[in-house]
Design goal:
single chain, about 350 residues, alpha+beta, Nuclear Transport Factor 2, Chain: A, six-stranded mixed β-sheet, two-stranded antiparallel ribbon, 11 helices, about 15% strand
């Protein structure tokens, strides 16, 4: 035990006393024999340590909040970024180009430059949208030249399939507009697996049926010659053999009966003339009329009149062969003619107009 001074009255008292016995002032209520009182100078240090801990805690909370904001509000989580990347790759591989464009735009609206796939997808983004702009321009031009130019620039691009399809359809359209065997053959050589191959082959078949071959032209010439030979010879049987059952017009008369044509022929020979017709400059075209071929013939016709018959007096032994004339015609007339013949090479219409020599 030791003596201390009372902080109130200044008298000496025991250091074990709870209060001054002289004035009653409390002296050392917290002190114990085994725990000496801490010096007053330690209190400011404790306060500074507490403040430092509080500041560090606040900084940690702020940084954690900033990180959470960046990850979930600005950049998304790593898992979300990976899902966005996988979706973009799927759309590209599946050739879903509209979805690909939307997914690329969404990615760059969500993620910043430090995202894991940012650099890779930035290159894809720039390449895709540049090509898409070129394709929209080529597609809008609606010309083979524009599509071919696009393919020259982007031979293996995103829109390769669409460009080839457009090239196919435009080539078919051009071939059909020309409507020739050469044009259709060119289409088939360029697009052997094209969308319009079946249609082109059908058009070729139709074209073959419309194209006149040598045998058909010869048959038309033979039929017209036979008709005018019969007309010159005043041969009713020969005339009827060259005419169709239904005749729409015959040398100025619409829908004539066979007797009308016989009367025309008889009148032609009423003066006793001997007439020879020569068919020249024949031009024939073939048309499809409700599934049946018709032949349009344009020709020149010479009408030669002789004083004697088909065989002249000189047609004797050693003279000219029978059927040929050895005299000059007394008169020659020229006509331009138009005739229509059916598939059986029978005349269904005949028009003659006087022409110049």
């Amino acid at each position: 035990m030791s003596l201390i001074k009372c902080p109130e009255c200044g008298r000496e008292i025991s250091d074990l006393a709870a209060s001054c016995p002289h004035c009653g002032c409390p002296v050392n209520q917290q002190a114990t024999p085994s725990t000496p009182q801490q010096p007053a100078k330690d209190a400011p240090a404790k306060k500074r340590a507490t403040a430092t801990i509080a500041i560090i805690s606040i900084v940690i909370v702020v940084l954690a909040g900033a990180a959470a904001f960046f990850l979930f509000f600005r950049g998304g989580s790593d898992d979300d970024e990976r899902v966005a990347y996988d979706n973009i790759m799927h759309y590209e591989n599946a050739h879903q180009l509209d979805s690909l464009g939307e997914a690329l735009n969404d990615y760059f609206d969500t993620y910043s430059a430090d995202a894991y796939h940012y650099s890779q997808l930035k290159e894809l983004h720039d390449c895709f949208f540049t090509e898409r702009a070129d394709w929209q321009a080529a597609e809008g031009a609606l010309s083979l030249e524009a599509v071919r130019h696009f393919l020259d620039i982007h031979p293996d691009g995103f829109y390769l399939k669409e460009a080839k399809q457009k090239l196919d359809s435009l080539s078919y359209k051009d071939a059909k507009a020309v409507n020739t065997r050469e044009a259709y053959d060119r289409y088939l050589s360029q697009f052997p697996m094209g969308k319009y191959v079946t249609e082109v082959k059908k058009l070729l078949t139709e074209l073959d049926s419309e194209e006149l071959n040598v045998e058909e032209k010869f048959s038309v010439k033979e039929a017209l010659t036979a008709h005018f030979d019969a007309l010159g010879d005043n041969d009713k049987d020969g005339i009827s053999a060259t005419l169709a059952a239904d005749i729409s017009s015959y040398i100025g008369k619409a829908n004539p009966e066979l007797e009308d044509i016989y009367a025309y022929m008889s009148n032609m020979h009423s003066s006793g003339r001997f007439i020879v017709f020569n068919v020249k400059n024949l031009n024939v075209t073939k048309v499809d009329a409700a599934g049946r071929n018709l032949y349009n013939a344009q020709f020149s016709l010479e009408e030669e009149t002789y004083k004697h018959g088909r065989h002249s007096a000189l047609d004797t032994e050693g003279g000219e062969p029978a059927g040929e004339h050895t005299e000059e015609p007394a008169e020659v007339k020229h006509f331009s003619g138009t005739a229509v013949l059916n598939a059986e090479m029978k005349i269904t219409s005949l028009v003659l107009r006087k022409g110049k020599e």
